[in-house]
Amino acid sequence: MLVLVINSGSSSLKYQVRDVAAGSVLTEGLIEKIGMGNGGDGDGEIVGPRDHAEALEQVDAAIHQELGDLELAAVGHRVVHGGERFAEPVLIDNEITRAIERLNPLAPLHNPANVLGIRAITKKWPEMPQVAVFDTAFHRTLPEHAWRYAVPGELYTDHGIRRYGFHGTSHEYVTRRAAALLDLPVEEFDGVIAHLGNGASVTAIRGGHSVDTSMGFTPLEGLVMGTRSGDLDPSILVFLGRAGWTPEDIDTMLNRESGLKGLAGNNDMRSVVEAAEAGDAKAATALAVTSYRLAKYIGGYHVAVGGAKALVFTAGIGENSHQFRALVAEKLGALGIQLHAGLNAERSKEPRVISTLQSAIPVLVVPTDEERAIAEATAAVVSSVHA
Ligand code: AMP
């Protein structure tokens, strides 16, 4: 079964064509600057597709140039916000598209773009089965004590202000692979998954389900990330508001200028590690703050799951930065966690154990693959509908 996976942003469209049975990528690409240009006519400097429909024409042309004639079985969309309704991937129809659109206020940068991608496909290939795979869905199992903010109830009932969690597709995929690596049925997997990319979140898994996660109402809460601050005292925002900062100023500062970038001047973990090793004090502080925050979460989530059976690292930093993993692990001595220096330093694309035999629980590195998870979920939904 060939599935086109679409990750539609406001001005970009990322795609992959996947052979689900083989687990392989046949072709992939990225269309950028959507709606920023003049579609190629005139002499404007920026050339980009006019809209998502035109971007999809480019994707179609690129796929056919690369692969010749082929029959796509379905399209799987990464959709950021599924709100409280969507706990699983769903087959898209007009009602579902409108439901995703109604969630726009909760994810104003992402859901409108996801809907544009869905509508472009619906227009071009009206008969094509489309499936929405939500970033929030895996966290629909959070118990109320984990998703409630301690604020007046109307904020939840009137505005939907609660913790939703994100990166769910990755956390679920990595949970399944980690359980398999440990030879455990996924229902028996209790553990902590640290997805550390430019965006980063950590999830507490009990019985294979998400029971807490560090991102909240938006992806800003929780860990120190590439350019996001993660947790801070909300009074800082009030203070800045009174000092004349606009909501947009505050939003930009917290989402784009903070995190590693705010602390070390660079949001790339490789550069921050190199700078710290070369003696840069700001970079060293950035690593200390970032690893300490994560270690605190891991300790808390060890409690949340009633004793983790494994700690799992994934995504760009989690999979590749042995230095950062070591910094986190050295703060987890109280949990009896012990990395094996040699195994930790090894480079590999395979899921693997990087702790010593004496470590109280195994520490794993499990590469994530969100597109693969979306393609598999899409194929499963389409097959179940046709069954
Ligand atoms: P992601 O968002 O999952 O693509 O992850 C991006 C982050 O992973 C950036 O901070 C990169 O610096 C980091 N990263 C990618 N490759 C490496 C590497 N080989 N060593 C250290 N960090 C890496």
Give a quick rundown of the structure.
The protein has 387 residues and is of the alpha/beta class. 41% of the residues lie in helices and 16% in strands.
Overview features:
globular, 387 residues, 41% helix, binds adenosine monophosphate, Nucleotidyltransferase, domain 5, 6-stranded mixed sheet, 12 strands
**CATH architecture level-2 label of the largest domain:** 2-Layer Sandwich
Strand content: 15-25%
How are the strands of the largest sheet arranged? 3-2-1-4-6-5
Number of strands: 12
Global outline:
globular
Which residues form runs of ≥5 with pLDDT under 50?
A: none
Q: If you average the pLDDT, what whole number results?
A: 95
Task: Describe the main β-sheet briefly.
Answer: 6 strands, mixed
Unique bound compounds: adenosine monophosphate
- What is the rounded Rg? 21 Å
Q: Helix share of residues?
A: 40-55%
Order of helices and strands: EEEHEEHHEHHHEEEHHHHHEHHHEEH
- CATH homologous superfamily grouping of the largest domain: ATPase, nucleotide binding domain
- CATH class placement of the largest domain: Alpha Beta
Distance between the termini: 15 Å
Helical segment tally? Answer: 15
Domain count? 2
What fold name stands as the CATH topology of the largest domain? Nucleotidyltransferase, domain 5
Structural class category? alpha/beta
